[in-house]
Amino acid sequence: MGSKPAPNAEPAVQRPEHSTHTHSVLFYSDDRFLAESIGRFIGSALGAGDAAVVIGTVEHRQALEERLSSQGLDLPRAIEQGRYVALDARETMAKFMRDGRPDEQLFLRTIAPVIERAKAAAKHEDGKIALFGEMVALLFREGNAGAALRLEDLWNQLAQTHSFALVCAYPLREFQREESSAHFRRICDQHGAVLPDEAYTQASDDDRGRMVALWQQQAQVYAAEAEQRNETQMAAARLAAIVENSEDAIISKDLDGIVTSWNSAAERIFGWKAEEIIGQPILTIIPPELHGDESMILGRIRKGIPIEHFETVRLTKDGKRIDVSLTVSPVKDSSGRTIGAAKIARDITGRKRAEEALVRAEKLAATGRLAATIAHEINNPLEAVTNLLYLLRFEVHTAQGKAHLALAESELGRVSQITKQTLAFHRESVTPERIDSREMLDAAIAMYSRKIARKGIVITRDYQPCELVGMRGQLRQLFSNVIDNAIDASPDRGEIRIGIHCRGEQTEVSISDDGQGIAQQNLARLFEPFFTTKQVGTGLGLWVAKEIAEKHGGSIAVDSRTGESGHGTTFRVTLSTADANSAAGIPTAA
Description:
This protein is an alpha/beta fold. It folds into 4 domains: 16-202, 3-Layer(aba) Sandwich (Rossmann fold); 246-347, PAS domain (Beta-Lactamase); 353-422, Helix Hairpins; 433-580, Histidine kinase-like ATPase, C-terminal domain (Heat Shock Protein 90, 2-Layer Sandwich), CATH 3.30.565. It is 47% helix and 21% strand. The strands form 5 sheets. Strands 3-2-6-7-1-8 form a 6-stranded parallel β-sheet, with helices on both faces. It has a 5-stranded antiparallel β-sheet with strand order 10-9-13-12-11, with helices on both faces. Strands 15-17-18-20-19 form a 5-stranded mixed β-sheet, covered by helices on one side. A hairpin with a 2-residue loop joins strand 4 (97-98) and strand 5. Helix 18 packs antiparallel against helix 20. The longest helix has 44 residues, at 349-392. The N and C termini lie far apart (120 Å). Mean pLDDT is 82; it is low at 1-21, 425-429 and 582-590.
């Protein structure tokens, strides 16, 4: 490429064979500068009797040939002699590209013969050859930077066996993107000389110094900005990781209530995948009766007012209701304008259940204290009355009087029994025993025979011979409480259906009435202590029944209808059969 140029010289090569570099790169901003620079490089070689090969686009080949002709070169003569070879960049490249990458063997077979023929056509015995190529620039422009860099490597490998001076050219505009910085550095590293664009090449020495100083200052600014950007990106990545791995649902939405982001915890808690819910209204997870809350929340967010620890109910994908605590904050743009909301939803269903369990435990403790007090206050007078009735036996001699006395004693016994059952204060043996479920249900029915007769209720039995195991007194209390409720719910001359069915290792006892049924809003609270729908009642009967059933490893459920076409309530008590328990040591029911 000739001797090393002076500081203000343009990138020209006087004699390629004297160049200390065989592979140079020229960056340009204007096509005219490219034609002038390459024209001097190729023109110097042809004027010295050497050969030249140009592999370029149609436009650049035409501009170069016009430039060479204007320099006084007899280009047709050089073409006829074979000292000037012009090839189309795309057609030449197609001969050695495979699967978007240059094939080494095909490259050598395509390019080496061209160089050898042109070199043989040179006027000198040691003829040199000047090459200009922009195949790499075309690959880079198409976004195939990897292929362009590989082709640069192949040119360097070819230079090990063939003598030539090569200038590659890249338009500088291709490197304005941030991601192209690394490619730009690698391209520079692969060339022996780097020729800057015309802004630097055509400047004076003083202007070049100023330009270099300005570039250094800009480079430092860009480096600082890049470092700050990297730190920002790392902080954003850490924040994204925190959001994605949070145990709480983190959701964002716009001011119209449309979901814009949805983390993994939100998927786990609510059941919807991000791709299912993003773009949908947040009302999707809000129960219909609470839709008004969303208007309130968005109203406060638009005013920039956050909401903290708002406890409410939300819906999962399968329709389940869960208790959540919401914290909602405004999301603002760079100008401070509110553009959306970020919501953190914590599932507090477990906490709510624990609180309810604590309330039940407190009610149980209160019930225990009440039971102890009432037992003390009632049992003493009952015992006194019992003793007085016993003494009256010796003073009553008429048959009628003795009958009345016996009836009084029986009723007094019933009062005592009912008191103990209602308050779960009936202390019997805690040893489990085998129990005939039919006898137990009949005994409970008999206990309320007068009440049943007074209302004219018909009892319909559907019994299977199922045997239970448990504490006799507690199970009798369980069934007595449920039967008593059925009697109260039944209309005059109504019907109560009692069924006992063996279902594998479980026994199901169903007690149904044809009363008006229980309102839907009361069903959920039916087994709470002190909750009752009766005009007169303690609200303890069904709660005690549930506690006894669960204590025996069973359950109690209720189904009720209130419609005109059909109404009534059915309680189902499910308990383990005697065969499902270890019968060792359990005495047979008498």
